Amino acid sequence: MTEIGVKATYTGPPLFLASGQCQHVLSSLKDHLPLRSLHWKSTSRTAIRSIQELPVEFVLLDTVKDERSYQMASKILEKPLVNIYFVTCEDADVYKNTVRKQIKDWHVTISQRKNQEWMIVLISRPDVQATTNRLFQRGTIIDKIRADFNVAKRDRCVQLAWAVGSEDPAAWTDFVSKLKDGIVSSFDTSVVAREEEVKRSESQRQMVGWNFCVFFMLKESLALAFESVNLLEDALIVYEELEALFFLVLKERRSGSWFGELGGTAPGDDSAPLLSTIKKPYSDLILSNTITMFDFRSYLLARICYIKSRLGRIADAAATAARFITSFARTLRENEEFLSDNFLESWIYSSAFNVVNQCQAWVEALPDQLDSASLNSFNAVKGELLELARNQLDKIGLRLSYLPLTPPFSFASRSSTRNPLASPPTPSQMGPPISQQDLLDAISDQAKFDQLYVTTTNRAIQTYTSCGRKRLALKLHTSLAALELHRKRYANAYNTFSSLPAHYAVSKWTSLEAFMLSNSLLCHRLLNKPKDSEYVTHALAFLKAFVTGCALQYDEFAGLYGQERTQYVRDLLKGIKEAGPGLENEYISRSHPAFSIQLKEEEARCCMNEDGSLVDIVVRNCLPCIGSIDSIELTFVGDDPHDQIVYSTLSPACLSPGDNTMTLLCPASTSGLYILSSSVIRFSKKIVFSYSHIPSKPHRLHHHHHHHHHHHHHSQRHIILRVPRDSASLDIEVGFPRKVVLNETPHLLVKFSSGRNQIRHAELTFKTPGDEIYYETAKAKVVNEEESLEIECKDGQIIIKNAPPSKVLSLNLPYGGARVESIKVIALVSYTSESEQPRTRNLRRVRQVNTALPVAVNVQDYFRGKCLFSKFRISCATEQPLRLASALLEHASSSEFSDLSIRGFERDPRAIETVTPSRPAHYIFKIESSATKPRNEREMLSLTLRYRTLREDIEALVTQAVKMQASRDPSLIEHKAWLWNVVMTRIESTEGWLDNYAENPVILLNGEEKGWDEAFASGIRADDPVRPKLLVSLNAIDKMLGDGLELNTKEDDSTPNEESRTEWRILSIPLDLPFLNILSSASIAIPSLSKLDASPVYAGQPISAVLTIKTSFHWGARGEAEAIDEGGYTLRFDVNSDVGLSWLISGHKKGEFFAKDDSTYETHLTLVPLRHGQLLLPKVVVTPVAKEPQIDDNESTAGTIQRLDLPTCETHQAHFAQRVLVLPRSARSTYIVPVEAP
Q: Are 1077 and 1207 in contact (CB under 8 A)?
């Protein structure tokens, strides 16, 4: 081991050396060691090197060898770097006569030493130093010494003010500073000189006589010097450069002249500590050119690893050693014929353990513990070394037949050049050459071999586990389990083999996972265990690993598993099938790669003679043998997650290796776009393979190179299936009824169509997500009821029996609950028919029904005597325009004995009015009453509107046009829905299409200009024979709509959907006949103006007028106005003069009168017009007079004041439209203006 630190010599006068003062000085000096913070700036290096700590050894000068006794390639720091001369002198004469000569003699001797510095230290007492500066003294002793010996302006002389017992640290400051300067200076000159020698020698490498060993020792002296002063990075660089030069020389094949043999033949070489630098005299062997390559490589590795350990890079040191063992083992294996038996295994085993133990000792000796990352790195390398040592036991075990030539043990035989099947050597042949005692014991006894094998493996497992490399630890567990299996300890082997595959599956290590599982199944069979769910789990897991990772050839598989792979898998499938009936619960294997499913085409086809659809799929069997299955089911979902359809096979099937085409049936009569959600392959009664086809989130995929690994069930896009509509299948539609009566229980219109089916039994169920809406199925009513149908409406469902084919049944379905604008209705139909095998079919329809009325109605009533005028304002409740066909007001009871006569204004019955949000429609109705006495109860009226939205109007036109075109060519009947959707899509894509149609009811598609390419891209293939007919039909429909097609509303053989598009919606609004207790008709008449020769009226002229108030109780009801006595009621009138400040009223302008039914009250007024012009007559206001409260005499409510409600009263201004022409008053005045004469 390299000595750390540098040397310095000391000497002095003989009396000083013999005195105790010298020892005291040295003892005090050691208190200031080691030196700290030295900074070396070399001329050959750009960066400053800092030496944090440097020990210094002081030796007497006489004990140091002479300069000539050092070898040429000696260590740089073997010689002292600084020479110190201690002197004590307080008298100048003594210095002049004696001391100076002593110092001079020493200085002459020291000056002859190369690359060494010197110092002269004058030791004086502290009190003497303070008194030496006398006034007239020429100079102190230290000044004289400096004058005599200092050269080149460098001060090498130090005065040390010190005495025995002095503890002043400042006294040593100057000394320590100059000592550090001297050491650095001497070290620099020594290193520079040695580097020059190294460069000179390396430049002569190609010359004859150049010796690598000599060069190595020369350059290594630099590394040793750097190591001594703790410049470890520089030392490591030197050794790495030497290693690189060695490989370069080795490549040039010139090493033979310096390394006589490969080596490794000395006793104990196989078990010697690899990282030891003192196990052999390496320096002497190198200098004498007798070192072997084996020893040289070992020494160089040991030096590099030791320096890395001092740098704290222990994990790096261990990794370097591990790489060396692996690489140099190849060199030894190439020359294995020169080595003894088992030498290579023994050397690798011993070296690996030596590196592990030595590095562990270095870790424990560190002053600070390694951080977690460094410790994990070290343990990872440590685990690799322990595994490397364990692998040598595999080789020895195979050679001795202690282990079988099967995986995982047979893997070790691949790296050996010896024949593992060769007869093992005798103990006399194999014993002496190796000296590793553990291996010797293991070779001699199988039990000890097993013990060593298990111990070494467990230690490697623990090390791997501690650093988180569980995958490698699992691989070693495999060896222990295989050993238990080989020793016929099946229970232990089964437990281990059963627990390991789950860990391998997580690590994606499929080859070892398959090996574990196969051995688990083998142990399962050898233990005669029943085939339970655990057996199925292991068998399916093996098939998964087999498919995804085992790319083995037939002969490799047979060698690994002892059986041809097709037969092996066939037997495994047989065992899985046999285990199915014995399972308690259904066993589901998810996303198993043995099978994969994909759609052959993305469009289903309708069954010809029954409800439902068929789809073709391709099932890929990735196994090498035929697999028999019970059934296959594919589940598709629509826009609503609850809208699911299932396609399934009709009978069991056999899946051959590769692709298999199969046809699946879905008995549900549905249509639309569906997404493949999941698929199920029922392998046996209780064993199911389940696959999800919903795309997962993007993630990094593990690429496998096996050609079977396609994983269609892990598609990164949705698999869409288009199910065509079967016009002949059973169907059900739910919508908002065409006729709505506001005061009735709200209901929905349900249309049930039996299609081609002779319905034996059908159950209709309706529901809505949440609890806001409930359906009163027990109160459902059939609109078009027929006696041949058996219909039962009860709570929760509607049952229909014996419905013939092509039967359309309409029902009104009442509902209740919260008032919402839109209801999501889920209609479920479960039915069986007569014309097929007993099979229950299910149909699910989801409809979003808008229950909000698009129309708003406001009414304003005007009473005129026995007539009532009602003005209705009909407007849009939404932003969507309406088409209003008619509005009818009639008596709700339609009684012939009604005393009401209702008449509306005449309109053209064919006129259809368009109502927009900014343009409402107005209807006025006149109601005449011929009643002679007050009514006993209120009468009801009904306002009936026939309307539809503008969108429905357009849809009706498109429906009629499509139907007309399809009637010309029967082959287009099944494409009517496609044509309708294409035309509506083109209309809706036009900007402002609703507003344009509202202004001009003509629909322009511009088919010839824009073309129909985007329409055919939605599902009609280019090679479809019907495509030309569809193109002609689209252009014909375009022409019909553009020419202004008139809507035909007559009933015909339209389908239910087409009828709903052409019918008008009917809204019936119940209205109460308005009532009024007292109707007052007030009029102001001016008699003077009624004459033919009436005089004009001037402003300010009084006019006589008559106020007449007629009262009527005709529109009142009996019992509604209790305050009205049998005879009449007191009213108050007020003539309001504030009509534009036009009149001044005089007379009885306010007053009260007692009004009776059909009575008249008159009074006289005087009106004075205040301005000229056409003046409106004053307004008259008539109001009822409140009666005095009455005290109740009833015993129960004695003392309670009863307040009577005022009757309703309305005043009609009969003179409201009359105006009076008032002329301005004309007057003449004469003025005399005097004018003076000029």
A: yes
* pLDDT grade for 302, boundaries at 50, 70 and 90: very high
DSSP string, 845-882: EEEEEE-S-SEEEEEEEEEETTEEEEEEEEEESSSS-E
Q: Give first-to-last CA distance, the chain, whole Å.
A: 155
Q: 408: cis peptide before it, omega within 30°?
A: yes
Is residue 818 within 8 Å of 757, Cβ to Cβ? no
In this structure, are residues 383 and 460 in contact, taking their beta carbons and an 8 Å threshold? yes
Q: How many residues does the chain have?
A: 1238
* CA quadruple 993, 998, 1001, 1006: dihedral, nearest 10: -10
Distance CA(644)–CA(677), nearest Å, equals: 9
Return d(Cα 1178, Cα 1086) in angstroms, integer: 12
Owner of token pair 């553009």: 1042
Instruction: Choose among 141, 183, 162: nearest CA to 34.
Output: 183
What is the rounded average pLDDT for all residues in the chain?
82
Q: What percent of the chain has pLDDT over 70?
A: 85
Spatial distance between the Cα atoms of 877 and 897, rounded to a whole number of angstroms: 37
| Contact in structure between 39 and 61 (CB atoms under 8 Å) | no
CB-side exposure of 214: number of CA atoms within 13 Å?
12
Strand partners, 734: 750
| Residues in contact with 783: Cβ distance below 8 Å, sequence separation at least 6, in sequence order | 749, 810, 811, 812
Is 1215 in contact with 1084 (CB distance < 8 Å)? yes
Residues 28 and 22: their CA atoms lie apart, in Å, by 10
SS3 at position 477: helix
In a 3-state reduction of DSSP, which class is residue 1064? coil
Using CA atoms, how far apart are residues 82 and 391, in angstroms rounded to an integer? Answer: 55
The Cα 832–Cα 841 span in angstroms is 6
**Who contacts 504 (Cβ-Cβ below 8 Å, separation ≥6)?**
474, 510, 512, 513, 516, 545
pLDDT in tens, 448-506: 998 999 999 999 989 988 888 887 887 888 888 888 888 888 888 888 877 765 555 55
Measured CA to CA in angstroms, residue 189 lies from 39, 40, 989, 1088 at distances of 14, 11, 93, 147
DSSP class of residue 98 equals I
3-class DSSP state of 411:
helix
- Picking from 948, 982, 976, 952, the residue whose alpha carbon sits closest to that of residue 963 is 976
Distances (CA, A) of 636 to 506, 571, 575, 679, 1034: 31, 34, 32, 9, 33
Neighbours of 1009 (CB within 10 A): 8
Q: What is the pLDDT of residue 663?
A: 92
- Six token digits for residue 156: 């090498």
Confidence band (pLDDT; 50, 70, 90) for 1076? confident
pLDDT at 389: 92
- Which pairing describes strands 653-655 and 631-637: parallel, antiparallel, or unpaired? unpaired
Cβ(770)–Cβ(791) below 8 Å: no
Radius of gyration from C-alpha coordinates of the chain = 59
Count CB-CB contacts under 10 A for residue 1124. Answer: 20
State pLDDT tens for residues 916-963: 888 899 999 998 888 776 666 677 888 999 988 888 888 888 888 888
| Rounded-to-integer distance, Cα 54 and Cα 225, Å | 12
Q: How many angstroms separate the CA atoms of 237 and 969, rounded?
A: 94
Question: What's 978-999 look like in SS3?
Answer: HHHHHHHHHHHCCCCHHHHHHH
Q: What is the pLDDT of residues 1010-1025, one digit of tens each?
A: 677 776 665 566 667 7
